[in-house]
Amino acid sequence: MKGAPHLFLSTTHACSYLPNQTASTLFIDPRFPVTLDLLGDFNRRGFRRSGELIYRPHCEGCQACIPVRIPVEAFVPNRAQRRTQRRNEDIVVSAHPALFNSEHFALFVRYQDARHAGGAMADPDPSSYLRFLVSRHSATTFHELRIGAMLAGVAVVDALPDGLSAVYTFYDPSLTQRGLGTYAILWQIGEARRRGLPFLYLGYWIKESEKMAYKARFQPLEAYRNGRWSPLDVG
């Protein structure tokens, strides 16, 4: 198969983020052999990866889902983020292949039960877990966050030509006070800097969604709108 991949539009379905809304999804032909460079190019155009699916929201009459990224050299943590870093100075991060790991999976199940009961990944099995997080197209790493011998969290990260992409983070729901979701993003910003990569891609910012609005706390933040990236003003 040569040339650019075909794009398809899904049928409408219930929106995962905004109540009483319907959504539709634009996605790349799943049969197309996607290279890492092509994945990076689509990522720069506001697409996202979920398992093998490379997609972006394409909803009639709604543009609430805004692709965002952090220019890592310009990022300065705010006071709350600096406290989160200090609170988690005892965490050791290590990289692992994107393969099934029973300890990771058990933590993922606990996280889903506590934070997303009834969601799309409720009651996962090992196969659905891997289909959700892993892709043959991507350079994906599972980064363990450990406190001593305890697995506190896992940050699933794609390496792209121009940055890192925060695919998904799950963590021990009993450690809410540590702010591990925030810590994982701060660590990924630092890791992108260490690798000399300019951006950390965070997926979609949705102002009206409590689950997605937190991304605006990482400043400066750039948004992809009207075919270009520009600073996001959240004032």
How would you explain this protein's 3D organization?
- The protein has 235 residues and is an alpha+beta fold.
- The model has no long low-confidence stretch (mean pLDDT 94).
- The chain is 25% helix and 32% strand.
- It has helices spanning 36-44, 79-87, 102-115, 126-133, 180-194, 210-213; strands spanning 7-9, 13-14, 22-23, 25-28, 48-50, 53-57, 66-71, 91-97, 139-147, 150-160, 163-171, 199-205, 222-225, 228-231.
- The strands form 3 sheets. The chain has an 8-stranded mixed sheet.
- The relative contact order is 0.18.
Q: Given the structure, what is the number of helices?
A: 6
Note the main sheet.
8 strands, mixed
Lateral strand order in the biggest sheet:
8-9-10-11-12-7-13-14
**What is the share of helical residues?**
25-40%
Secondary-structure blueprint:
Layout lengths: L6 E3 L3 E2 L7 E2 L1 E4 L7 H9 L3 E3 L2 E5 L8 E6 L7 H9 L3 E7 L4 H14 L10 H8 L5 E9 L2 E11 L2 E9 L8 H15 L4 E7 L4 H4 L8 E4 L2 E4 L4
Parallel strand pairs: 11-12
Antiparallel strand pairs: 1-4, 2-3, 4-6, 5-6, 7-12, 7-13, 8-9, 9-10, 10-11, 13-14
